[in-house]
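[Discussion] Sanity-checking designs against the backbone

I'm trying to build intuition for which residues belong where. Below is a structure token string of 564 positions. I'd appreciate it if someone posts a full sequence so I can compare it with mine line by line.
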């Protein structure tokens, strides 16, 4: 994660604020309304049906329950694999590492006016000294937030959601250019004035980041986390406040704005997501598309149909979801048969009936892919745009695709098959490869600009990131492949604490602590805890997983313009 150092100068336009002037602060004292009666069975109705029923006046609460419920008619919790949570809990033996991990996570908490607000990137577990960065990064805090929710500590997450929502309302400028209203910060930090006894916030919307790229994923993670908070606590009142409803609308309006795009995917700059340095992910990266899809679905569940301005945005979300799911499942999906079809593609097809719609040149298929692709398995490729297909595997995008049900059940199973078949390549000795394979030589020079941090099998260029284990575990539980999760967690437990919780590992198998990896990394700790808690109680998966919407599998019909 890249950011300005702790001593970086604060931009003058609006980087500090006294939050007493904002009405949002009143919500911090409101206790969640815990819903203990959500015992409805899962409803298989489509998004369109749910949207229409909401319009008929059923209200957002019933709307969410009918769609999201993971509770059996008998009242007991169940996991998505059909295994009662109680039986899993009885067979679970806590690892001694868990207690140490919780202690380390709590030491990373930063407070704002006496209330815990988030976790900073790294804190020395023995001295409590802040290491490198003192910012709270939005994407980095997500696994920490989930850990606190699963542990029954929602107030920390509520504070974070409200303060980042407040920051969304600031004027955001990079040089002389103003960012969109919906943009969320990449990070923020608490500035303490001991003389005045006042805490203020300073936010970074990309103006301090390396490369000066605004985060495209922060708003998506915020919506996903708001839904996780709502699902975990049963407290709908936070999401239903006018401030939160407006925040969701601003993010959605920014993403759904019409322009020159001919695809439903989002066009992005390099370095706009977890891979926040130049790595050739510009265009339509799978990570952003999967998060976009998941945030669209979460927003549809959180928006109140009767609120002003929501009806139109909800209709646009439903339309975009159907287009996006079709596009991703059709053009981003790659398995053995699809690879063989691309290998035989004709080019320069100019018609409505073109098979090679993006004019992908078969000679652009990299040699490594033919040996890597198993007969059983598949995945969503990294990027698809005109005459370009990035065939690399990206872990975050594929795991989120499973959790959001962007992947069909068959595709989700194929992704897990691929992980099993290519364990040495994608997991190795430390889960989980952020991408595969690494780029090197002239390609590395051209793609990364000779980035000394992203050398082959290091950092974002094929490095192994322990934080990703929570996403892998969630995907495993949802697909019923718990053995994969347990095996990966066992590998992590053997080294993480001994190596002082590194940010990432280097090497083709992930054997070596990263050459510039920061120790005592908070999201490495939190990712492990979330993975362990989900295995202990698979019902936790409900806060980060969405069921498949059957209306997104339309019958494909031949175009009216088709001719023999």
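Best answer:
Here's mine. Compare freely.
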């Amino acid at each position: 994660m890249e950011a300005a150092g702790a001593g970086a100068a604060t931009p003058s336009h609006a980087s500090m604020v006294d939050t007493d002037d904002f009405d949002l602060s009143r919500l911090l004292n409101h206790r969640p309304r815990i819903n203990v009666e959500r015992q409805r069975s899962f409803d298989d109705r489509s998004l369109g049906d749910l949207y229409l029923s909401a319009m008929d006046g059923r209200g957002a609460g019933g709307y969410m329950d009918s769609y999201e419920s993971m509770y059996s008619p008998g009242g007991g919790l169940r996991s998505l694999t059909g295994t009662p949570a109680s039986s899993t809990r009885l067979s679970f033996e806590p690892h001694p590492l868990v207690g140490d991990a919780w202690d380390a996570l709590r030491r990373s908490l930063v407070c704002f006016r006496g209330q815990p607000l988030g976790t900073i990137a790294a804190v020395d577990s023995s001295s409590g000294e802040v290491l490198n960065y003192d910012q709270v990064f939005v994407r980095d805090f997500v696994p920490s937030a989930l850990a606190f929710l699963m542990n029954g500590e929602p107030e920390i997450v509520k504070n974070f959601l409200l303060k980042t929502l407040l920051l969304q309302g600031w004027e955001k400028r990079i040089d002389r250019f103003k960012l969109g209203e919906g943009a969320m910060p990449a990070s923020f930090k608490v500035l303490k004035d001991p003389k005045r006894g006042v805490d203020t916030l300073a936010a970074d919307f990309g103006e301090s980041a390396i490369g000066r790229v605004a985060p495209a994923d922060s708003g998506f993670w915020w919506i996903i986390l708001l839904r996780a908070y709502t699902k975990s606590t049963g407290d709908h009142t936070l999401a239903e406040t006018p401030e939160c409803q407006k925040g969701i609308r601003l993010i959605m309006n920014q993403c759904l704005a019409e322009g020159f795009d001919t695809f439903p995917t989002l066009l992005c700059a390099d370095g706009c997501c977890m891979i926040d340095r130049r790595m050739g992910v510009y265009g339509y990266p799978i990570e952003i598309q999967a998060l976009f899809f998941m945030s669209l679905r979460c927003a549809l569940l959180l928006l109140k149909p009767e609120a002003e301005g929501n009806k139109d945005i909800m209709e646009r979300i439903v339309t975009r979801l159907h287009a996006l799911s079709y596009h991703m499942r059709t053009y981003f999906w790659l398995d053995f048969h699809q690879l063989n079809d691309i290998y035989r593609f004709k080019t320069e097809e100019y018609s409505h009936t073109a098979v090679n719609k993006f004019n992908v040149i078969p000679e652009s298929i990299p040699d490594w892919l033919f040996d890597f692709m198993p007969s059983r398995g598949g995945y969503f490729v990294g990027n698809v745009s005109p005459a370009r297909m990035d065939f690399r595997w990206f872990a975050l995008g594929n795991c989120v695709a499973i959790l959001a049900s962007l992947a069909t059940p068959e595709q989700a199973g194929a992704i897990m098959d691929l992980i099993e078949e290519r364990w040495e390549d994608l997991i190795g000795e430390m889960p989980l490869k952020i991408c595969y394979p690494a780029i090197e030589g002239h390609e590395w020079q051209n793609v990364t600009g000779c980035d000394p941090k992203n050398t082959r099998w290091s950092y974002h260029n094929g490095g192994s990131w322990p934080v990703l284990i929570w996403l892998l575990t969630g995907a495993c539980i949802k697909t019923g492949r718990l053995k994969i999760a347990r095996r990966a967690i066992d590998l992590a437990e053997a080294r993480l604490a001994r190596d002082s919780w590194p940010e990432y590992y280097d090497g083709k198998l992930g054997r070596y602590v990263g050459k510039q990896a920061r120790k005592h990394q908070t999201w490495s700790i939190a990712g492990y805890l979330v993975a362990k808690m989900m295995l202990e109680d698979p019902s936790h998966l409900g806060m980060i997983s969405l069921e498949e919407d059957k209306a997104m599998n339309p019958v494909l019909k031949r175009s009216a313009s088709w001719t023999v």
